[in-house]
Amino acid sequence: MRRPRASRLPPGLTPRGLTREQAALYCGCETVEAFDSWVRRGIVPGPIRGTHRWDRKAIDHALDRRSGLIARGEPDIDAWLAEHAS
């Protein structure tokens, strides 16, 4: 089985599934250990269930909430989907 290579992505396209090291860099953490601390403290979510990859959008959402860009009472995507399911 061939592994996909990041170099095959179009220029400027960031992969959505990040490795631990990429996720740490994406968050601006200087070390992977600092990123692990953020995960333990609930600042950012852990890896996607069943994988060793972090969802870039989930990290963005968590940091948006943490920084106040998204109101705490605002429902998350799972709540919205449940509310609007047919």
Q: What's a concise summary of this model?
A:
With 86 residues, this protein is mainly alpha-helical. Helices cover 43% and strands 5% of the residues. Strands 1-2 form a two-stranded antiparallel sheet.
Question: Could you characterize what this model shows?
Answer:
The chain has helices spanning 20-27, 32-40, 56-67, 77-84, and strands at residues 17-18, 54-55. The model has no long low-confidence stretch (mean pLDDT 86). Helix 1 crosses helix 2. Strands 1-2 form a two-stranded antiparallel sheet. The chain is mainly alpha-helical. 43% of the residues lie in helices and 5% in strands. It is globular.
**What radius of gyration results from the CA coordinates?**
15 Å
Strand order of the largest sheet: 1-2
**Per the principal axes of the C-alpha atoms, what is the gross shape?**
globular
Unreliably modeled segments:
none
Write the layout of secondary structure elements.
Elements: E1 17-18, H1 20-27, H2 32-40, E2 54-55, H3 56-67, H4 77-84
Antiparallel strand pairs: 1-2
Helix pairs in contact: 1-2
Kindly list the characteristics that best describe this protein.
single chain, about 90 residues, mainly alpha, two-stranded antiparallel ribbon, 4 helices, 2 strands, globular
